[in-house]
Automatic annotation (TrEMBL):
<feature type="binding site">
    <location>
        <begin position="147"/>
        <end position="149"/>
    </location>
    <ligand>
        <name>ATP</name>
    </ligand>
</feature>
<dbReference type="InterPro" id="IPR014729">
    <property type="entry name" value="Rossmann-like_a/b/a_fold"/>
</dbReference>
<keyword id="KW-0436">Ligase</keyword>
<keyword id="KW-0648">Protein biosynthesis</keyword>
<comment type="similarity">
    <text>Belongs to the class-I aminoacyl-tRNA synthetase family.</text>
</comment>
<dbReference type="GO" id="GO:0006436">
    <property type="term" value="P:tryptophanyl-tRNA aminoacylation"/>
</dbReference>
<dbReference type="InterPro" id="IPR050203">
    <property type="entry name" value="Trp-tRNA_synthetase"/>
</dbReference>
<protein>
    <recommendedName>
        <fullName>Tryptophan--tRNA ligase</fullName>
        <ecNumber>6.1.1.2</ecNumber>
    </recommendedName>
</protein>
<feature type="binding site">
    <location>
        <begin position="18"/>
        <end position="19"/>
    </location>
    <ligand>
        <name>ATP</name>
    </ligand>
</feature>
<dbReference type="InterPro" id="IPR001412">
    <property type="entry name" value="aa-tRNA-synth_I_CS"/>
</dbReference>
<keyword id="KW-0067">ATP-binding</keyword>
<dbReference type="GO" id="GO:0005829">
    <property type="term" value="C:cytosol"/>
</dbReference>
<dbReference type="InterPro" id="IPR024109">
    <property type="entry name" value="Trp-tRNA-ligase_bac-type"/>
</dbReference>
<feature type="binding site">
    <location>
        <position position="186"/>
    </location>
    <ligand>
        <name>ATP</name>
    </ligand>
</feature>
<feature type="binding site">
    <location>
        <begin position="9"/>
        <end position="11"/>
    </location>
    <ligand>
        <name>ATP</name>
    </ligand>
</feature>
<comment type="subunit">
    <text>Homodimer.</text>
</comment>
<dbReference type="GO" id="GO:0004830">
    <property type="term" value="F:tryptophan-tRNA ligase activity"/>
</dbReference>
Length: 332
């Protein structure tokens, strides 16, 4: 079985709809066909300041949501990044094969650091993509299921893996991005020119999966649509309606052309009312399942402990090979 690896940050508490449609939904599907490793990336989270009690709880909330979304610990390996020390260890090695200029070109870093200012930007935020390189290479992943905003980090991973392999001999599998075109970028409901995100979206533009279903329905109903009346997919001229159609189609397993036919001659309001109900039907059981996992933290922690053990077996082997290739003297 080919292998996939991906990660999600625990910082926000609730996942948003972009996280789910862009990434987590694919994770669930891929566990059937792939040897799948999925993690909650708490090491990445501390690149910006975190409250310790909140980080601990948010890490459990993230894991609970992944299980609620359909990850099955019998079918995939689900773990917390800091439970596998090899991530930090390989990240150091990757720091030493990455060019400073190369790291400086990462657009997510440039955007985030520009917003924060140089003195509030940590060196960890700068090397964040290099930790991600280590995450991926440790598991010899063939593919990495993510949204469009992560593409550059996967390209960096390929470049660095190739460089290392060229210099020290075949060591790492070159990973391919696994990005589904339709859901690669889910847009803000109030401003469909920007992606839905915790940091950039206004509260009304962002759907948190753990929010009150009623509040979620309201956000869908007040989503910005476009001038004109026709319900048609046209990302350029009708970005608002197109975003709603993408969400609707994905959550119901309908095709966009079928939806266009279904809503022919109908008003935007009809589409939004129906999609609001689709969302409520999706988030209500999702919240309940998440809460059920959170109500039993011992079982949840046991799932994560078992996941970490499975992950570590793979990660330790890659790290040992890496150290050997580099010429580190064995410890024994
Ligand atoms: P994170 O936590 O920001 O986001 C998790 C996943 O959600 C996707 N995503 C979106 N997809 C579509 N539309 C959107 N509006 C949207 N917003 C977010 C992201 O692309 C991501 O797939 N650096 C990563 C975490 C990470 C990782 C890794 C991923 C750490 N190590 C190794 C893959 C492999 C991140 O911050 O994701």
């Amino acid at each position: 079985r080919p292998r996939v690896l991906s990660g999600i940050q625990p910082t926000a508490g609730s996942f948003h709809l972009g996280n789910y449609l862009g990434a987590v939904r694919q994770w669930v599907a891929l566990q059937e066909s792939h040897d799948a490793f999925y993690m909650v990336v708490d090491l990445h989270a501390i690149t910006v300041p975190q409250d310790p009690a909140e980080l601990r709880q948010n890490t459990r909330i993230a894991a609970a949501q992944l299980l609620a979304a359909g990850l099955d610990p019998e079918r995939c390996t689900l773990f917390v990044q800091s439970h596998v020390p090899e991530h930090a260890q390989l990240a150091w090695v990757m720091n030493c094969v990455t060019g400073f200029g190369e790291a400086s070109r990462m657009t997510q870093f440039k955007d985030k650091s520009a917003k924060q200012g140089a003195d509030r930007t940590t060196v960890g935020l700068f090397t964040y993509p290099i930790l991600q390189v280590a995450d991926i290479l440790l598991y010899q992943a063939d593919a990495v299921p993510v949204g469009e905003d992560q593409r550059q980090h996967i390209e960096l991973t390929r470049d660095i893996a190739e460089r290392f392999n060229g210099r020290y001999g075949e060591t790492y599998t070159l990973p391919a991005p696994y990005i589904l075109k339709e859901t690669a970028k889910i847009y803000d409901l109030q401003d469909p020119s920007i992606k839905m995100s915790k940091s950039a979206s206004s509260p009304k533009g962002l759907i948190n999966l753990l929010d009150e279903p009623k509040a979620t329905a309201k956000k869908i109903k007040s989503a910005v649509t476009d001038t004109g009346t026709e319900i048609r997919f046209d990302a350029e001229n009708k970005p608002g309606v197109s975003n709603l159609l993408t969400i609707y189609a994905t959550l119901t397993g309908t095709s966009v052309p079928d939806l266009e036919r279904q809503y022919e001659g109908k008003m935007y309001g009809a589409l939004k009312t129906d999609l609001a109900q689709v969302m409520v039907d999706f988030v209500t059981p999702f919240r309940d399942r998440t809460q059920a996992y959170l109500d039993d933290p011992e079982t949840l922690d046991a799932v994560l402990a078992k996941g970490a053990e499975k992950a570590r077996a793979v990660a330790a082997e890659t790290l040992a090979t890496t150290y050997d290739r580099l010429g580190f003297l064995p410890a024994k």
